[in-house]
Amino acid sequence: MIVKPKKYLGQHFLNDEQIAEQIADTLTLEGYDDVLEIGPGMGVLTKYIIKKPITTHVIEIDPESVEYLQANFLNLAPRIIQENVLKFDFSATFGTRPFAIIGNFPYNISTQIVFKTLENRDQIPEFSGMFQKEVAQRICEKEGSKVYGILSVLVQAFYDAEYLFTVPPSVFIPPPKVESGVLRLTRKAVYSLPCDEKLFFRVVKSAFQQRRKTLRNSLKTYNLSDNLKANTIFDKRPEQLSVAAFIELTTAIETDH
Predict the structure, then answer these.
(1) I need a labelling partner for 249 at 20 to 30 A (CA). Which of 78, 136, 230, 233 fits?
(2) Does this model's pTM top 0.90?
């Protein structure tokens, strides 16, 4: 039985050994020698990660959880980081070494963790873990779906995304009101874009912020030439565009100026 922490800090702690082991097994161990677990809590997932032939590091903001981990995972103690992961400089621990990320991610910061991963993708060849099911599905969804959006395009521009399995609320303390989903992101062989990446991010966000409009209307602020606006791609709505099409669109906008 997992010991229940006194504080939750908005996080739902996994209380099922079998599912914890399944999540740990999502790591392929290919292309890295280090892994960072985000939000280990009382270590239910940690105990399975540290069995693997890899160097495990954990980052936890809750002092009570850190104290528990230090007392119960003595070999891990030197690699327990008490920090806010969103403010943490990965190079302080890993230098320029590649590392994987894994975790039962707190729902309230899970999307921000993904964006931080994208910013540090040069060092992160693999990312796996548990999200709210709706968020996990959105990340992995393809064009043509109502849930395909900003997260889908930006993640899939750099990573291959796989939705692996669904987890019921009953295996958490306290039980959330929604199902959870486990995914794995595997960095693409080429993880830079053949266009201005900052512009790519802006175009994707601008398009989906007005997702019911055609691109001709949602991208008005880009002051596009009449010649470019005549392209039939601007008759489409953002959810109709694949990642490759968004890259082509960004390139066209870039050369139009």
Answers:
(1) 136
(2) yes
